[in-house]
Fold this sequence. Notes:
The chain has helices at residues 5-13, 76-81, 95-105, 128-141, 163-175, 197-203, 219-229, 243-255, 279-292, 303-306, 326-336, 360-367, 393-404, 406-434, 439-443, and strands spanning 18-20, 22-24, 40-47, 52-58, 66-67, 72-74, 110-111, 119-120, 156-160, 233-237, 260-265, 269-270, 274-275, 297-300, 315-320, 340-349, 372-376, 382-386. It is an alpha/beta fold and 480 residues long. The protein folds into two domains: 5-191, Alpha-Beta Complex (Spore Coat Polysaccharide Biosynthesis Protein SpsA, Chain A); 195-443, Vaccinia Virus protein VP39 (Rossmann fold, 3-Layer(aba) Sandwich), CATH 3.40.50. A seven-stranded mixed beta sheet has the order 14-11-10-15-16-18-17, with helices on both faces. It is globular. The protein starts with a helix and ends in a 37-residue tail after the last helix. The model is unreliable at 176-191 and 446-458 (pLDDT under 50).
Amino acid sequence: MSDDFAARLLRHLSVHDVVGVAGTSRLVGPSWIIAGQPYIHGCIVHRHGTPLNFECYGPPTVRAQAVDGVFFAARREVCEAVPFDVASFDGFHHYDLDFSYRAFSAGFDIAVPWDILIIHDSGGRYDSRWQLYADRFIAKHRGSLPPWQPHQPSWSTIQFGCVDEVVRLQRQMIAGRTPSPDIGGGDKPASSVSLNTEWLSALSELPVCLPQSAWLGHIPFLFLLIRLMRPGLFVELGVDFGASYLAACEASRRDRTGTRCVGVDTWLGDEHAGHRNGTKVFQALSRFVGGNYPGAALMRSTFDAAVMEFEDDTIDLLHIDGLHTYEAVKHDFETWRPKLSKRAVVLLHDTRVWTQGFGVWRFLAELREPYWTFEFAHSFGLGMVGVGSAPNDDLKEFMNFVSQSPTHAQAMRAACENAAMSMVNRVVERDRNMGPAAPAVAAGLVLTWQPPHPTKPVSRNEPCPCGSGKRYKHCHGRLA
Length: 480
């Protein structure tokens, strides 16, 4: 239903492995929709004559577990790693759930955005054939599906007379100019909770650029957190391309918080991010930071060596995003703990990644008993840990709000996730309008790992120019 459908899809596939228009973040059985609220996502227009039925199942998500086969797209390497099971699902049903759930289980990233809208002319067939494949699906995945209590899922349906009316509502939802439809799921749905207008204002801020990162979905919340805390010192362990670090610098500049932002990294990568020589990225970031944020600094160092450069009780906001094993993140937290102030907050990324040796989720679970914590599930998960015993009043108001009830917590999570989904399109549109005057373009900032000779094609079987040691097709060739 969008003229730029292909461009939107390619944009999503540049940062996600599988993209669908409807799905669930908690698959519990042979149908994605039976998970109910708040685990179903996406929107579809169903047309059975007139009127058009716009069905909104739930907010967008970048951590879906399965998607509906009405429409989805996957990167080539996903299909190579997780081929369709044509022996078990050779018909119309359940091939979609099986493929996407196995992709999720293999560690691939699955997103359900709001800005790809389709018209579905079929009502589906829940007959004996559907039940046959449903039984096969359950038998195949019985050991990995969580327990589920039968209930009637709910979602919102709005009737429209023409396509233009649907597209107008969709654009308003993406831009955040209108609340999402009431999607049920309790006596008081999250969409009925009013958020502080100052918080919403902070969530609508745009970063100067969007470097390649799995952290993009949390940038709106970081703008809000900087505004609430007004930290004197922000330290980031693991800068990489600088997505979160540059956002913190920009948030501090706009809100005039006087925050000193320090980023620590070796720019050599690790077993999770990939090993590489990041000298060019470090140099480009240093030039950009030096020219735009006079009080900020980048330290090319290991975390253990850098900690000696900071006084005790001085860091108000610490972001830990280095090696993601349980042992590594626990070591980083304990090593830097004496440096945290009495109002300190610690951010831990990748709390919703359970494969490839990631253990942040496990360490966050241990921190829930001694500290106040809050977690976002989207964009691979972000844990917020209130380490300090004396948060300032604005932060305390936020903490009390999200702790008031599950509905309030879900309202905040949805607001941050929705803001992130619209942010990408808004930044792309802004930079397109600004052209060469866009901040990152004008500064020549490196946003991705580029081959040293961009005019010379790199064979897919050659070593990747980033220095990871992998073949180009298995490394940054997958982003080409």
